[in-house]
What we know:
- The protein is mainly alpha-helical and about 70 residues long.
- Helices cover about 50% and strands about 10% of the residues.
- A two-stranded antiparallel sheet has the order 1-2.
- It is globular, with a radius of gyration of 12 Å.
Amino acid sequence: NIIKIIRCGDLGFKCNFMAAGSKLEEVENAIFDHIEKQHGKELQSMSEDDLRHLKHRISTLLGRSCGCGAL
């Protein structure tokens, strides 16, 4: 199994949190849970377009075949 990794900092937050796992859904849930808990104020101030962009960026980063999270 390929390990999927995403860093909160890769999404534009000033944060060193990293979510990792072998299942895409597991890692997506972990990063969203972290963002909601630790960056709730920033999340609430985002427009719908910003939220779509954030979700797209997460999908793009996690969709890389190497799973490293780098573009």
